[in-house]
Amino acid sequence: MPHSAPNTVVFKADMLLLLVTVLAAISWMFSKEALNGFPPLLFIGTRFLMAGILLAIPGMPALKKLTKHQWKASSAVGVLFGIAMSTWIMGLFYATHLGEGSFITSLAVVLVPLISWVFFRERMTRASWIALPLAFAGLGLLSLQHGFRPELSQLLFFTAAILLSLTFILNGRAAAHVPALALSAIQLSLVGVVAIALSAGLEEWPAHWTGDMWWWLILSVTVGTAARFLIQTYAQGMTTPSHAAVILIIEPVWTATFAAFWFNESMSVSQLFGCGLIFLSLIVNRWSAVRQWLTSVRKST
């Protein structure tokens, strides 16, 4: 009986994090649909700016208490995040296969230890060294289907993964000193500012917005961005990092599954093997977290 309450809290957190992966995956569908009417940079900018404003409303008390240094650190990460997301949305704009794109983007998780080692001289674990060749082998299978002719979308997704991995690292450093809600509001808003600024110089904006454009934008803002970030922040405060890490790596599997039903996508054998190797690299990279999660599951049962 004394263990029931903690187990209930952990189970609730796991279910919320699972919901986060579903929301993140379905957000790919919303974004792809929105790009039928929106220029890509205008869409991602508007989406994130509106989501940032939504989070800034409840986060206003925390925002008012931030120091100049906290604003500077949060803004730096936000600008980098904006460049990363602008690259990602261009990849999505040119993509012909969302499932494949989601697995390539998920490489950001595997690249974090490598970039930490290269730029910050942080020691890489044995699991990270094993995960890297698996990840690049999977990427190779995806890009070498017809000889060495990687698609533009694949190059953009991989570039976004590199930028996102650096964002994760800097975000972790900023999050240690800035309240989560305030940090999220600043970062999402700055993604919007960066993308809209790029859009103003590079894209032709539509003369009017149709009902479909508004529909997919609102879904992307509320469900795919604001709700996802809020639920993830709340759930991660209820559980251990190992639980969160294990569950969140499921996102590309959901994305590929939804894309198969939504857009009637299918994968060739080489694509399946490539995505499978990337997913295996995610598990290997988080093996210590996976092992802790499996241990806790066994104890709870």
Structure write-up:
This protein has 301 residues and is mainly α. It has one domain (4-300). It has 13 helices and no strands. The protein has helices spanning 4-34, 40-64, 68-94, 98-105, 107-120, 126-143, 152-175, 180-202, 211-236, 241-248, 251-262, 269-285, 287-300. α6 (126-143) runs antiparallel to α12 (269-285). The longest helix has 31 residues, at 4-34. The two termini are 13 Å apart. Residues 1-5 have low confidence and may be disordered.
Write the layout of secondary structure elements.
Layout: H1 4-34, H2 40-64, H3 68-94, H4 98-105, H5 107-120, H6 126-143, H7 152-175, H8 180-202, H9 211-236, H10 241-248, H11 251-262, H12 269-285, H13 287-300
Domain EamA: 12-143, 155-284
Membrane topology: Multi-pass membrane protein
Pfam family, one: EamA
Supply database-style keywords.
single chain, disordered N terminus, 301 residues, mainly alpha
Give, in order, the helices and strands: HHHHHHHHHHHHH
Q: What gyration radius follows from the Cα positions, in whole Å?
A: 19 Å
Low-pLDDT runs: 1-5
Q: What is the helix fraction of residues, given as a range?
A: over 70%
Instruction: Give the number of helices.
Output: 13
Would you tell me the structural class of the helices and strands?
Answer: mainly alpha
Number of strands: 0
Overall pLDDT, averaged?
A: 87
**Sheet with the most strands?**
none
Distance between the termini: 13 Å
